[in-house]
């Protein structure tokens, strides 16, 4: 194809004379047109990395990538440096999604980009890519543009996760990173200003939450489509984009996914049908162009819908409190990426789901260790969250593998006490585990877990010792359970453990100890509690048997017989990093993990492991 034919291809810009208009110079394009969210700050926050970005743009590397969390200023910093240092260069701004993840300099779909690469001006040219996706990022990291062509791109730094992008930057690529928070020096220069603080996301938030019909930024939708239907369509498109699903999203699939999202929205009464959601797609796309919430692209694999970048930013800010993807999304993505050839893409989507807080989706897509395609660089807290999500979905064996990965990924030096203790607790509930491993995990909880977890683990150990006939060892476990429950400030749990200990002392002939234990139970819960009533009945039995004349050994020599291994004492000091957040039900394996009540209470006898 000749240069003239390329210029006349569909999508090329034309003048009234029929010739393609010359590409603009970089200095002629305003910052908003380069992807900076309006209002563009008159005085941007000065970042410590600005000089490094300027050095890279003014240097010899033909590809410059700036990675940062969304709204951290990456686009603004790169655009300012480019306009100053490369202002006389011609610039083309292809839609990153329209490149469909192909190597941008070998088979691009954008006609203007084809023309630029064929007829490069003598004063140089720039390819500007704002917000590239995972596949395009991998291509850019090894790109070698023709002489005279520079590629400047921004990327969400979540895509630089080692399990998402494993490609090492090539010799022609300069990769720079911006933090999502200001350093003390940056904050001092910024004063009261914050990163992205001037960007108004209110209209996007209302649109995603179904609170309004739209706003000035996104046009004025008609009243034919209710706001919740519009929100459901946008949520589906936003999540598809945020997860980097490497497949087109045509209208029929988008509408059916939106139906699943609509069913999760409490304000959607009645739930719109597929026809209503299809109309919502057409309305949101409109005639295309700027100011529309969705844009429609025609990619080699089909029609695709891409949401406005401000919608994805807003969804990230809403976080996991905004919404959870429905099961339908998990099913669709799982089917699309279900073959062995798609394992890398499946892992990419799963890891991005972890980054976005979609733990249920991530747990369904990712294979836990020691699967060959399991993620290798997840943080210990993320591994724990995936274990909780697997348990909630009824995949107990899979959950235990994630919890085992937590222990493998963290040192046993006290720096990860609470997280290791919680993971070991769930492993200790597995009745089918090797007894030696199960005991080791429960002892770890007694030593490092929160006091209530330690009490529960000691009760479970007491049951193991009872079943093995090691009653002195059982006594030591029950005493540890009493002490841990007292430390947790849980009189009910302390009374349960004390009652079991008193029963053991009674049947072991330690009558005086038993009476003291029963009295302690009554002191803890009052005379009317179930444990106190059981204690009173036991004391009455003792009185009737008139056993006060004592076969009681009444020494502590038996207590020293906690064999074969004594329980470790609670490790002193900080419990380590805070636990990651889980689900919303405190009676559930995935309940709030900030405190000790993130799992069901463990009964003193015959505890039932999950699954």
Automatic annotation (TrEMBL):
Identification of the protein by name: Tetratricopeptide repeat protein
Compositional bias (Acidic residues): 548-557
Organism: Actinomycetospora aurantiaca
Gene3D superfamilies, alphabetized: Tetratricopeptide repeat domain
Region (Disordered): 1-22, 542-611
Entries under InterPro entries matching the protein: TPR-like_helical_dom_sf
Segments of skewed composition (Pro residues): 601-611
Superkingdom in the source lineage: Bacteria
